[in-house]
Structure formats: structure tokens, C-alpha cells
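Hey, quick one: can you model this chain's 3D structure?
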Amino acid sequence: MLLQLKNVSKWVQSGGQNVFLLKDINFWVNEGDFISIMGPSGSGKSTLLNIIGMLDHFNEGTYTFLEESVHSLKEKHRANLYKQYIGFVFQAYHLIDELTVKENLEMPLLYKKQGSSERKALVADMLDRFNIVGKKDLFPSQLSGGQQQLVGVARALIASPKLILADEPTGNLNSKQGDEIMGIFKELNKEGVTIIQVTHSEKNAAYGSRVLNLLDGCIEC
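Sure thing. Here's the predicted structure for all 221 residues.
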């Protein structure tokens, strides 16, 4: 098993009351799974994804990732864990505007302290794989939305993560670009990468082997 959440709840205080963003989430993921999380806006999808990605804390419950108890880890250890094993793909791309495509791709490798020649080889490989060699010296503002998302996916993959977390990865793309991104995810999943995506799209959700429906912070049975 790659990860497991047991009785995870997260709330915020409002007017002296606890307002639940997630309530009693029980959820597990095996290596090689492709899971789609669906639900209306405000149902807790992105909150759940951020907790799985260790970007957000929760108030109750336990979270185990690769047999490590995430909830009891120190901040630094937790950060090392997600930098090593998790790649993120965001709807809003989250590329660094001041860096070229090539430099954006290199960022996760700098976190892993990989040598210069190894970084160059991995970047060249990703540029080639995503057919963006000709864009390597451009800045994000010079790319189309589809091209920016391709760079975002390439960046998420470059450090060979065990798990990719994708939050509405095709939300800002046209249908052709969206199909291209989903096709890439399907290929990656075949290669053994575990994927969890949040999506509003039934079509995109169908790429997953399992669909999780959230409503008002709870998983619907």
C-alpha cells in the first residue's frame, strides 16, 4: 500500500463552531492506482489533495505514506518526503514566470541535489518526451495554456515521483489539449506511476480505475 488515511477530519472555526472541510475520511491507495476524486465545488476535493500531498494539515485521524506516519513527522522530514516522492500538477500551472521552460524543469532536481550533468540529461529527456525542445528558452508568458500545462506535467515527472497529484489538470485547456494531457497520464499510469486527480469532468474521471465522490467533506458510499 502506498498511502492510507484513517478517520481524517479537518475543520476551521467560525463563530465558535467547528465547520468541517473533511469529515472521517477513510481512504487508501495502492501503488499503480489511478484514482479520480469528484464532487461539487466546496466538497473538499482540493483540501483532500493538499493533505495527501502534505501541503495542508488536518485536525484528527492518521495518515500513513510508505509506512511513515505523516501526521507525526517534523516539518522538514515531511517536506523531504513529498519532494522525493510526490509530483504536483495544478490547474493554474504554477510555473515560475522569471524562469525559462528549461529552468522550470530543473527546479525539482535542484531540491534533490542532483549533479549538473544528470540534471541536463533529465531535462533534455523531458523536453524531448513532451515535444517542447523548441520552447526550452522561452518564458511561461510566451507559451499557450496547453504548452504551459505540458511543462507543468513534465516538471511534475522529472524527479520520477511515485505519486502524481493533479488538481483539475485540464481545467484551463481546450478539449484537444485536455485529451493530450489525459493520454499522457494514462501512459504514465501504465508505466507504474500512481495518479490521483481531482476533476469535474466525467470524461476525465473515466480514465481512473476508481472514482471517489466527495460531498460536504464526506466520501459518499
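One thing worth noting: The mean pLDDT is 92.
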